[in-house]
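To start, one record:
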Amino acid sequence: MSKTSELDAFLSANSDLDLVYIILTDPVGVSRGKGLRPHELKNVYENGRAFPASIFSLTVLGEDVEEAGLLWDIGDQDCFAFPIHGTLKRSPWLEKTGQVLLSFGPDSGPVAVADPRLRLHNIAERMKGDGFHPVLAVELEFYLLDKNAARDGRIVPALAPGGVYNDQIQVYSIQELGDYAPFLHDLYAACDAQKLPAESVISEYAPGQMEITLTHRANALQAVDEAIQYKHLVKGVAESHGMIACFMAKPFAESAGSGMHLHVSLDDAKGHNQFASDDPAGNVLLRHAIGGMARTIDDAMAIFAPNANSYRRFRRKTYAPVAPTWGVNNRTVSFRIPAGPAKSRHVEHRICGADANPYLAAAAVLAGMHHGIKTKIDPGAPVTGNGYDGTIDKLTINWFDALDAFEASAFIKDYFGPEFVRVFSAIKRAECERFFAQVTELDYRWNLRTA
């Protein structure tokens, strides 16, 4: 196939398009890029598209971080990103608009060390070299919020398009799904148009909170590419319905947080699940993988919980984990082996917030599993019953401590590379310092008269 065969077929079938967004995912998980006229795409497919290196040294607010070394030190030089095969699609929620995901390659210059997708690719290839082929599925929880209220500075659940305002939890509510039926109908139609494997939907443990499952993929990169496209799609469809799709880890103090659960198994070269076992607790290989994830959890916490808000999610008895525990068919632990037939045996990693960068989160999970398998780490006995009780080891739930552990980790440097650690740490240190430099309304409420 020629470099432009996918593009030629797409433009032939979509000759009405006026604009196509080319999209990169930066280290902090924000989608960035450009809008191009369709005739400009041929050159992108043949030669790549230039972006300044500084695009990968930005905070979540889009502010430069000089300490990342991708700005003035190198003259903010151009680096070339290329389209990801299979991601060129229409954006059905927008008129006459398409999109395609881009990524930097290993020879793309100084940004190569910071590209999140390249980190996942390298770790997946390292595992394949040892005979382990990652199979991955991504679950993302999100809130639907009232867009008009947000304009007025009020953050509240959205008024359902087909119903009335709901202030009840109503987990697994069919009524709430029915209330949001116009949104869900358009969401599934958009997923079908983009060939994204969206399946069952549930009303989660808070008003306006939902989760839609994505089918597992034998190609980890494809699974995360689809998660990125899905997240973009959910936000777009929600906006078209006058709502905001919010993927914050903890948008409401008194309500459940939103997680990103990663379901992982390892196939052999013939596609057979190496975790398959009649034992519900899995075989030795699966337990070693869990042991590695548990052992390296603090090292990677800055990836799993990348923002100040991320750490507000980790509270006992809220369906978010608080310790590096594992168990069988148990939602109170960090690493859950779901119930199911022997051939489907896998582990669900429940630590990430929905705000984590999916590429980096998946990379850190696979790295932990690989480390545990290679060094044969025993995870200890599984937790039965309430995993929130009797735990001694706790997760790192402080942003400063998580960054310290990340920067000092030999494990992270081994799998992600020391240059990535330098860039990511610089960005997150800058965010951390700027965030805590702000004086908030809560400061005044607590201390204005009492201090």
Summary: The chain has a mean pLDDT of 94. The longest helix spans residues 220-240. The two ends are 70 Å apart (CA to CA).
